[in-house]
Amino acid sequence: MSKRPIVFTTNHRIRFSDLDPYAHVSTGNYARYFVDHRMEGFYDVLGWDQETLATLPFMAWVRRLEIDFIRPARDHQKITITSFVREFRGPDAVVDCTMVDDAGKSLAQCVMTIAYVDRTIGRAADWSPEAMAAFYEDGSG
To answer: What pTM, to 2 d.p., does this model score?
Structure first.
């Protein structure tokens, strides 16, 4: 049986304050959009609000972001970000993210690596089967 990852989807509108002097979204804001998108998915899809996150036996830390800029996002543009966990490698969850405009044209892609940090020892550890299962539709992990 193949695993079907849960896809997180969020919608945004580019704001003036997100722009650089050339009227493109500034580089650092792409990283913020992608990280905020995953956190919104934790809340909206998994039900992991701040109180719930504080009770989990682990913390999720964004260890790495690799962003490919395809075309600029501009002022007041509507964008949609989708992402899913592609694979787990020991302490790392590898997440594929895509940002598209309202016509479906790709603006940016991102590979995000999220580390599982064991709350009791404060260090990275392998993702537990229970934690991995939360990211799949059938709970298979």
So the answer is: 0.92
